[in-house]
Request: fold
Amino acid sequence: MKRRNFSLLSILTFTVLLMVHPVTGWTLDPPAPEWVFLGLEGCPIQVVGHNSQYVVVGAMDGLHILDSETGNWLDFANVGPAGWPVTAFGRAPMYSDILITGRLDPENRGALVITQISDGASEVSLGDLPGAVSQIDHTDYFGDYRVWACVPGDTETGKVFKSGSGGELWTEITGHGFSKPNSFSSTITVLDREIVAQTVLAGDGPLQSTTDNGETFEPAHEDLPGGEAITILISPSCVSSLPKSRDSSCEYILATTEAGLYLKTETDGLWQLILTQPCQKVMHVASETYQRICVLTESGTLLGAEMEENSTWIWEDWGANLGDVQIADFEYHSNHLLVGTASQGLFRKIFPVGSTSVPQLRNDWHFSVAPNPFNPITTFSFEAPQGGLADLTVFDIRGRKVETIFHEVLDAGNHDITWKPRNLSSGIYLAHLRMDGKVEVQRVVLLK
Reply:
């Protein structure tokens, strides 16, 4: 097998220097890691993922696989199904040498293709699907695994499939009621004192939940505002700490709609609109020291925000230093942030293990609101670190703009802005403060 090698300088840039105090650990956050170009310039990347030691890139001309241990790209002959455009990527548990990809055949029909990493051999396991495959993933709880695949459908009714044989044989899942199934997410939960795998399916209707691998479905989280869910992410419950005397559900659920990104936690059971931009992908990035949400917007911007106990959401552009690129997909795994672009290639950042800045998001503006809840007037307070254009706009929980409180050039320093809404009913509203290309969000409650 032919291999293409990186230069020595490119490989050396993977090295991370740690700055550790002998007593307290970090004396200060290490220098912000730089983006490293990994290759594929000019390649129209669509999907980025990982499988064990390999970085997997799906593009219009097929699969590209990087061995992250050696820094070598595996050189496959992308002919036949191996060269079909890739629209989704997934792994099969217990089959580390197999990749499952969603492809588009020459007739623009969808297909599920199995690829052997060892030699690049690719074979269609299920073809003639009604459009592009949007997602491939697996549930792997207690040895009872299934691979799922979603096909929303273009002009035909979409379909959902599952496989218990590593993607070789597929069975269609019915009974969910969707004509356009978009995506799914799985977790573990406790029902009737039994630990089971729960999968929630999103599409053109209320979310549907199954705990028997798609044999039966029931509506879930029917109060989701903002239209149909495009993508969905549910967090796993901590099974070891769940009380066995009651049923339990996920700790939180994230859903993207045309209105933006919604969050619902087990604590309050209410949907919150935490980002008013349509998103095409959402990931939970976590370690012992941080919990963050990372999203890719429909416009190709990569945003990240810290998950806080309070209602403040501070979004930062994680791809800002990449320059003028169109981000097509991203993946975060083992402190590696991978970004695939539409034509500029594949990039990676490696964050120091143990650092609290992965990346570090800070509330530099001290954005707050008081009183909260309020009636009839409240005050927004914040600090502008430098002068410039600022905007404070309020939205309702469905993402509709309620009022622009101000849009003007402000001087550096502290600011207090009062708000006395008119003709608004009681409810939850989201105040978005924009300055210097960044956004902070505060949830405010009007009580009448």
